[in-house]
Amino acid sequence: MLIKTENLRSDIHRCSTSFLTAPRSDSQAIQVNLTQSAGEKAIEASLVHPDGSRARVWTQVLDMKDGSYVIRFRLFQSYTELQINVLHDGKHLAKSPYKLNNMVYHEKCYCPLANLEKWYSIMDCPDSYSQIDLDLAQFKDVDVENVAKEAISRFNKAGMHSLSHYRIIDNKVYRKTYGEHVGFKMFSDAILLSLTRKVKLPDIEIFVNLGDWPLEKKSQGHIPIFSWCGSDDTKDIVMPTYDITEATLEMMSRVSLDTLSVQANTGPEWENKTTTAFWRGRDSRQERLDLVVMSRKEPELIDAALTHMFFFPKDPNKYGELVKSIPFFDFFKYKYQINLDGTVAAYRLPYLLGGNSLVLKQDSNYYEHFYKMLKPYEHYVPFKRDLSDLREKIEWAKKHDDEAKKIGQNAQRFVKENLMPNDIFCYHVKVLEKFSKLLKRPPAKPDSSWELVDQPNDNDSKCDCKRLKTKVSNDS
Question: Where is the composition biased (Basic and acidic residues) (predicted)?
């Protein structure tokens, strides 16, 4: 069993954490070498006080089916000391027990680290992201007052666009909203609040697009808008989507599909997967309907069906009856996964890449924050936007099974290396920090027209932030 140490640090937030450990052989620990799963019950883990009493925590062991295991946990209280026990056959494994001798804070605890560079080091953030550099290279000397006037004038149109206007001042989040449908502010609120609980962000002012489509056309616009999706003909600054961000914040809570859980639920071994290309979804693009028509003509090649219809007229004779949605993890019973755009980029792609199947991805002018890091025939197999060569690509995969399997493995490795929770946090903070340096002047303190977005209370969970207490003591 390959084991690697990752993120075993204390005095930081651990809302949901994973780690693997490097085996050693000594009198206190055993070494186990596995190349495949030893079963879901093979590894036991617990988070306890040094005296052995239980902590308020949910611990989960994920069997990655390749001989490695991920242990993650979600705290419901902050602690000064904790011990992590990892057991196999009742005996401590590798360097277990792991001791965290400083503070470990739960997700709702407001306890920001003041030193941003130290936070980057703790989180193992890269120095830069190519997508951020590309997005921000379009702007310099941003005058937020002029940006605000133009953004509100152009995009504050009921029924068309929706925006959240944020100022972060002294690590407090203030907001105004524009447009009719602003419910998705809950997602941008959540990540900004979560980040400010973990690290002191620079003062900044931004506009976040709450809709699907990127807004600022390269041919006519010049104002910075943050969006969850980019496109080749727009200049929006791309953030991780609300989907993968919520999965990061809410894993081991109200979200069951995330980039870790999907890797532990990849279905049968490659050789036992059904050799059919699979797709399910709604009718949010013409090519999705075209795919269903293809499937009805060649069901042995493609299993594609619509689960909902909102955009096009129902036609059972042409598209068949609507089918019930199936659990996402059941997708991976199939060897080939088809990824088609919806209204914009299909936000399921991170999870398809992590599922150890081969992803066939439609050519698209839409992209998420990580798309430009992906390489065709290394992480996925591309097909033309009009599906004209999809059949050919599926047949290629069938004839080149070893290569197809390798591409699926590469895709899963990409997810492990680029789309884990720390990657999502790092990307958000990096893009905010770098954008803050482009501002012509610091944002003004908000007046009464702004709403303070409150941090969640932690009345049911002890926070006990030592950092803030130390600062108050030093100030006094």
Answer: 459-476
